[in-house]
Design a protein that fits this description.
Largest sheet: 5 strands, antiparallel
Number of strands: 10
Distance between the termini: 54 Å
Oligomer: single chain
């Protein structure tokens, strides 16, 4: 029976959505790029609390619900759901602001990664992370409602404070 338990549990586990669309770092970028003089719905994200000026900043916008928040980009795009990504080199100095277009006015979840080692994924020991509404971070990803930002019909300003590993947790740099 002990040998059968993993097979039974695997059979009962929900299947990951299968999509014919490969996940790439380019998904969501074309739709996200802000253009000069454009007045449609967008977020102007002020980045607060950078640890240093290394690596890249990656901003991603998701639907504001727990099912889709931080879901695989290829699944969201394939299903026609809102997903936007902006990647930029971390500027050497000055205030940092990132603009990202969204499909329509409304509520979204926003995640910002300071990818200090440029490996395109979150590294607990190295990278910084932040979310819209600046929720206190624990051992699990925050709920979508805690990362909510509401876009108006034009550019909407949002401030995200980055959190870095501090002891056994994540917190902003003082």
């Amino acid at each position: 029976m002990a040998l059968l338990l993993p097979l039974i549990l695997a059979a009962e586990a929900p299947a990951k959505p299968s999509v014919p669309l490969a996940s790439t770092p380019e998904l969501g970028k074309a739709e996200a790029k802000c253009r000069a003089g454009e007045s449609g719905p967008a977020f102007l994200v002020d980045v607060v609390g950078l640890k240093d000026r290394t690596g890249k900043l990656k901003l991603e916008v998701y639907p504001n619900n727990d099912t889709d928040f931080l879901m695989d980009d290829n699944v969201l795009v394939y299903q026609g759901k809102a997903f936007r990504r902006v990647e930029e080199e971390t500027p050497a100095s000055g205030n940092v602001q990132i603009c990202v277009r969204v499909p329509a006015a409304g509520a979204y979840s926003i995640m910002l990664l300071h990818d200090r080692d440029n490996n395109r994924k979150f590294g607990w020991w190295v990278d910084g992370i932040g979310f819209a509404s600046n929720p206190k971070l624990g051992w699990h990803k925050p709920k979508a409602a805690a990362t909510k930002a509401v876009a108006g019909n034009g550019p909407t300003r949002v401030s995200i404070t980055l959190n870095y590993r501090n002891g056994l947790g994540m917190s902003p740099i003082n």
